[in-house]
Amino acid sequence: MSKKQLAIFSLVVVLLLAAIAVVAWQLWGGGDADTGEPLTDIVATVQPPLPTVLATQRPPDTGVSGGEIAPTPAPTPQIVGDLENVAASLGLKLDAPPSLAELLEKYPDLADLATNIDLTDEEKLKAAYAKLLDLYEKEGLSGLHEFMISSGVMAALNLDSAYIDFVLAYEDGGLEAAKTLARDRRLLTDNEELRVILILDTTDPGEIAALKQELAAYGVVVLNEYENQLEIGIPLAEIEETAVSEDALVQLVQIAHLPHVVGVRAPEFASSDFSQIEGEGAGITGARAWHAAGYTGAGLRVGIIDPGGFANFLGMLGNELPPGERVFIPDWQDATYLDRHTGEHGTACAEIVHEMAPDASLYLVWAQTNIELGRAVEWLLAQGVDVISYSAGNMFEPIDGSGYSVELTQKALAQDVLWVNSAGNNAETHLYMTFTDSDGNGWHEFPNGDELFPIGTGGVIDVALTWDDAWGGASENYDLYLFEETADGAEEIASSRDFQGGRAADEPVEGLQGSVGVPGTYYLGIRAASITRPGQLNLTGYSNVVEFAYSMPEYSLASPADAPGVMAVGATYWRDDSLEPYSSQGPTTDGRRKPDISAPAGVSNLTYAAFGGFSGTSASAPHVAGAAALVRQVYPYASAYEVRDYLMQQALDLGPAGFDTGYGAGRLALPAPPTGTEPPPTGAATAFINDVWVEHNAYVAEVLGMAIHVDFNALNQRDRAGLVTAAFYDANGAALPDRNGRYASGGQVAVSQNFTPRYDNSRYTDFVLFMPYAEMDLSAGSYTLSFIVTVQDSGNALLAQSAPEPFTLTVSGENRAAADIRNIEVYHNIEGGMGILIDFRALNMQGQEGQIHAYFYFDDGSDRPLQDFNDNYRTPSGKVAVGQLFYPRNNNATYTDFAIYMPYAELHMEPGARYYLKFYLVIWDETGRELTSSKWVKFWYETYN
User: Fold this and answer.
1) 333, 748, 823, 894: which could join 735 in a potential S-S bond, CB 3.0 to 4.6 Å?
2) Packing angle between helix 3-16 and helix 18-28, nearest 10 degrees?
3) What is the three-class DSSP state of 824?
């Protein structure tokens, strides 16, 4: 019998004699360095012990990151893209808006405006405007806005900001530009009059009549009046006669300060016009100017995923939506069904994308469940979309940059597709609290001290409770209850009491959804069923169906708006740029800043004309998605992250100066249209290295080593793989020899990683290589070493090379445990399972207990771990795995055909399908420190009904 046959035979024997085999194995011991004989009598235990530290380990797959600020370093090195240099090459720059103090220090002549602005004298008002205009020209709209708000000038002028924008548009582009802005914001009547609403301090007919006479003197027409409000129209012909924008401002200010006028605001509309409706967003955000310059999104593809549906979209083709030849749906969805039998939310979103990028092609996918969402993403990526717009979110995820929907966004970003997501509408229906129980009765005390929290509903309940615990393996147990008021007190009418006991499927979630019958006020209660510590509670209500008595806007994001790299969009009211009170706010629960940007909501829209317009961050997100399509048309060589950063840099800073967790970087505001695009470089493939730096004592998957960071450009290598390598040398410049075949290149110690540029001029600002110290295989002592970084093209031609980077390394005299895996073989259909035979070596482990484990994942591009469902063959967090102990008898122990057995049933696959899976191996010492890991081992098998 051969060694392989003997190993496989042992796997079968263990199924019958597992207990005896385990005892024999434990008594026998480990490998023999002198003979190197195979230990084929070491067999798998039925339920291997797995240390907790194993639960999250996995091989480092190369990913892409947008350079987001994270609270702790990512465990896997990432390739990072950055806009900095692209922005510089385009002449773009983003500066935080100066504070009022900084502006006054820089422009001391503004001090009088900050303390006193004389509105009684026309010439003084013009002089004040001249100063404001000068500030606008030097600091831009954000600087002007900051000064006017902080100094009180805006309040003194008594004007809605829409009219300030009107005047500035007049200054920049003349009356036609001002007219365009007024039309986009629905400030223009059919008779070309500028609409203005005057709020009065009187309802006296005589006083109002006198005011009307004064208005007539300015050529103003009174359009409507109601109680203490007048809607007036200022003929544009009257404004045109003033010839200059300062006179237009003077006229507006004078009207705003007539007797009994205490406020001026833009009008609000409830549209019932079902002909073609142009929303206000394209004008407010600057997109109309890009259209006029020829940038309309032509050639770009925008995917729109929506859980509501695309009702009535067929009748809009060629009008509110692109013509039929530029609108696509998946082959598994029926156009007629979508048009007649689904909701219309997605149609409303598509209208806005089309308005922002009228010549882009749209790809519409109706996706309600997580499975449908995954399928939608897969289809959109196969269609080659450039942007994905997703105006939806999930309350049942951790909001910490992880979770199912987050993983889908990262899949899109890895293919350089920008994902734009609504931030959510939960700012007014959200609480973020530490569990408090001062009286010890188990019921949580809400921030106001009560144990019952009032909510209002029209008859439907949709509330989610999550907390800080493992997503998969949650063991802190809370329950959520719904009560109604009765004559006898609070009576429970519904509850969610899922058990969280550390099982694989246990997640820190409780939810109440469905009808409660009668509209009115109900009460929520949270009870700690079994906890070991006070948890951080996240209580969120779906804002369309419930109202909270009070709320905490912070941490109210809906996932995947929390995903790294995703462009999360908050909502501003289109008329005055105020942050919508419902707009979800950050940060994420792991401390990252979100949302990234904000955009208009409450805009005109044919789909929602009967409701007066399209509100919510659902309306804001497609504005940004459409703008991204315009930017990608102009700058086709910019990455998704560069487009995102470009839009954030150009945003109009609102709210607190700089980035904040309400507006993000500010409201979407495209700059003046570019005059030309950056031509792609031509010629042979080349590269240049900008910088190299080292981070010592870094850990990846519990392995100690050095992280080598490389900043480089790759030119003319679009869609062709290249290779970055760091090769190591001794003090004499001789190549450091490799001794185990790992982390090697041509027989010397080295670490390499592939890259594939998407553009002809791609820059990688933080490309990371990780080198374990142990792989240098040095004995105890102090060493002076160096490494050289090289960049090669797909044909291994050298494109760039760094200077030698010296460093010192001290190796302790301790003989630390080490291991290496030489070979892995898999044998299938052994008593309903698979046998894994491993050749490996264990060093400096004599008398210790070692462990070797296999961790199983899907090989479908998602890299999702398999989940356990019966508490067998699992890690403590519920991931499918199998392990084995070994006890080396010598400090240099070699194991050949070490056997691990995995029953197919424990992979938990549904019957009747073929599955593509993979696993990798990890060897641990007795302290739980990882000694080595293998590459992926891929396999498939079929299950039968």
Assistant:
1) 748
2) 120
3) strand
Determine what percent of the chain is predicted with pLDDT higher than 70: 81
Integer CA distances (angstroms), 632 to 85, 299, 386, 410, 635, in order: 17, 10, 8, 19, 5
DSSP-derived pairing of the beta strands 536-541 and 430-434: antiparallel
DSSP 581: T
* Residue among 351, 298, 344, 347 at smallest CA distance from 320: 351
CA end-to-end span of the chain, whole Å? Answer: 36
430 contacts 500 by C-beta, under 8 angstroms: no
Instruction: Spell out the SS3 assignment of 711-752.
Output: EEEEECCCCCCEEEEEEEECCCCCECECCCCCCEECCEEEEE
Contact 304, 295 (CB under 8 A): no
Taking the C-alpha atoms of residue 173 and residue 534, their distance in angstroms, rounded to an integer, is 59
Query: Region 838-863: what's the mean pLDDT?
Result: 86
pLDDT tens readout for residues 60-119: 332 222 223 222 222 222 222 232 333 233 332 324 456 777 878 888 877 777 656 666
| 367 SS3 class | coil
Antiparallel, parallel or unpaired: β 327-328 and 361-366: parallel
Name the token pair of 218.
Answer: 């300015």
Shortest CA distance to 546 belongs to which of 522, 573, 572?
A: 522
What's the pLDDT score for residue 757?
84
Distance from C-alpha of 393 to C-alpha of 405, rounded to nearest angstrom:
9
Q: What is the largest CA-CA distance in the chain?
A: 114
Q: Are strands 301-306 and 387-390 parallel, antiparallel or unpaired?
A: parallel
Model pLDDT for residues 230-256, shown as the tens digit of each residue: 778 888 777 776 656 667 777 777 777
Instruction: Give the up-direction half-sphere exposure of residue 574: CA atoms within 13 A in the CB hemisphere.
Output: 32
Distance set, CA 204 to CA 212, 228, 263, 278, 842 (Å): 12, 9, 17, 38, 95
CA dihedral (556, 666, 418, 687) in degrees, to 10, reads -130
Q: Using the predicted structure, report yes or no on whether residue 461 has a pLDDT greater than 80.
A: yes
Confidence of residue 387 (pLDDT cuts 50, 70, 90): very high
Whether the pLDDT of residue 48 is over 60: the answer is no
- Is the pLDDT reported for residue 22 higher than 60? no
SS3 491: strand
Distance between CA 157 and CA 163 in Å, rounded?
11
Return the bridge partners of 569, or none.
422, 597
Local structure of residue 503 (DSSP, 8 states): -
* Alpha carbon 156 to its chain's center: 40
- How high is the pLDDT of residue 830? 83
Q: Which two tokens stand for residue 29?
A: 């011991």
Say if residue 674 is preceded by a cis peptide, omega within 30 of 0. Answer: no
Dihedral pair phi/psi, residue 176, rounded to 5°: -65, -40
Tokens standing for 474? 């949650």
Q: What is the pTM of this model?
A: 0.50
Number of H helices, E strands in the chain: 19, 39
pLDDT of 466? 93
Query: Region 13-19: what's the mean pLDDT?
Result: 36
Q: What's the confidence (pLDDT) of residue 45? A: 29
